[in-house]
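Subject: Predicted fold for MBL fold metallo-hydrolase, 231 residues

User T.R. writes:
Posting the sequence so we have a shared reference for the thread.
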Amino acid sequence: MKLEKIKDKVWISSFEEERDRPAIGYVCGEKHCLAVDAGHSGKHVEEFYALLKEKQLPLPDLTVLTHWHWDHTFGMFAINGLSLAEKRTEKHLQKLRKDWDDGTEEEMKAMDEHIALEYQDQKMCVVGADVVFQEEIVLDLGGVRAECFHVESPHTDDSVLILLPEERILFFGDCISGEYPEWIVDINYMKLLIQKLEGLDFDTAIGGHWEPSSKKELLDSLKKENGLLSQ
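User M.O. replies:
I've generated the structure tokens; pasting them so everyone works from the same file.
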């Protein structure tokens, strides 16, 4: 795993396909430092923090989730500071906790080889967020704001975007994907998402499992992949 500098205040970790580890975002303000997503596991968080320390960057004291899926949330028990989740995300996490039993971990490993690889030598731990917001929240990190807000998407019903207006950067999690595990894209949700993205002011788009791209590159690829180029 590597740490890539996007701008003076913004960094991201590299994503990894083998263990389905998404990129974790990092925004360092004058008052607070924010992580975007909590990683796939405790070890994922530990390795991410080690990279920050190597660069002499403060650990995040805030972590916001883009959605509830395990690869973005199962490291939350190991984070520094407070975690934040939109109410739909928290509802999914609490349901998962309520339904958890002795066989759940093995079922999840059997469901997905990437999960099995990540959890070869560690245990799963699911926790809820410290702070739950409804629809949107603006975090003043000091010299940079993080606008976190719910968006309709074909991936999950709890997708959250994180916009940094001063940096002109958008974190979009996995919201451009179809629904797991078939990855089928609901075209109506995709149209709503594209319309929302078109109306946002940003230059750089950062997702969980993609290389950073420009706004134009992101929108062009979404329209092409979903047969919407003429619309």
